[in-house]
Specification:
22% strand; 10-stranded mixed β-sheet; 14 strands; alpha/beta; 256 residues
Length: 256
């Protein structure tokens, strides 16, 4: 058998979507054209997903950025979602109280929420490992997520690195919960539906297997009748992701 030229192998590898590219694209696809979306603190993947959605299938979205900007012009991903560069090109200033007021009035469609721990009921822990009274480890904190999750129309949970330490049988501290609705959980390996009645596995990444997903999931789950394979971003979308994140910050946040 003749080996492929090294240059061809290198080019093929460069054209291949990574787990980070796939997760960002999956997040972007949660945003519909014309939707109002918002980001909180520590949300670089969400900032990137919103910028990708605006550049591709959702040019009419409205973006409320926690840095205090309405519809800022995002031309490059920065390490902090509160980088002052995200004020550039804004059409108006938006204060944090105004952002919460818009959400409370039902004007915010989608917000992405991170979690140190999440369980099958959709409860998340952003507060501490162990207990609040005697925490083994303190996490960054809720920062308003408990309210925004209940008020926005379509909360989406995101765990960029799926492990049993993150997807747990029951969260140690319940920081956010929404008993009225089921929520989608996106990870580098899979998509779950969470809520009352437990977790349902809906899709897996092309590089994943059922055994791998089970090995990295601490809560019990059922499988949907049809398990989808998560699609790689199309070539033009992949180009957009790479243009917006030339420093590949997404790869530092997603996967192993």
């Amino acid at each position: 058998m003749t080996a492929a030229p090294a240059a061809a192998v290198s080019t093929a590898a460069a054209d291949r979507a990574s787990a980070a590219d796939r997760l960002v694209w999956q997040m972007a696809r949660e945003i519909t054209d014309g939707a109002t979306v918002a980001t909180g603190v520590a949300s670089p993947l969400a900032v990137l997903a919103i910028a990708v959605a605006r550049a591709t299938h959702a040019p009419r979205l409205t973006y409320l950025a926690c840095v205090g900007a309405l519809d800022p012009r995002v031309v490059r991903l920065h390490g902090s979602s509160e980088d002052l560069a995200y004020l550039d090109g804004r059409t108006a200033d938006v204060s944090i109280p105004e952002l919460f007021d818009h959400a409370r009035r039902g004007r915010v469609d989608t917000v992405f929420f991170g979690a140190a721990e999440v369980d099958a009921a959709g409860r998340t822990n952003l507060s501490a490992a162990g207990s609040l009274r005697a925490p083994a480890t303190k996490f960054p904190g809720v920062a308003g997520a408990c309210s925004l999750r209940r008020w926005c129309k379509r909360p989406v949970l995101v765990v960029p690195r799926q492990t049993r330490r993150c997807l747990v049988p029951r969260v140690g501290v319940c920081s956010t919960v929404d008993d009225a609705r089921r929520a989608r959980l996106l990870t580098d390996l899979a998509v779950f539906s969470l809520g009352q009645g437990g977790a349902v596995l809906e899709a897996i990444a092309p590089h994943a297997t059922g055994d791998l997903v089970s090995a990295r999931t601490g809560f019990a789950f059922e499988a949907a009748d049809t398990i989808e394979i998560l699609a790689d971003p199309p070539p033009d979308v992949l180009d957009t992701i790479r243009r917006l994140d030339p420093d590949r910050l997404r790869g530092e946040l997603v996967g192993a």
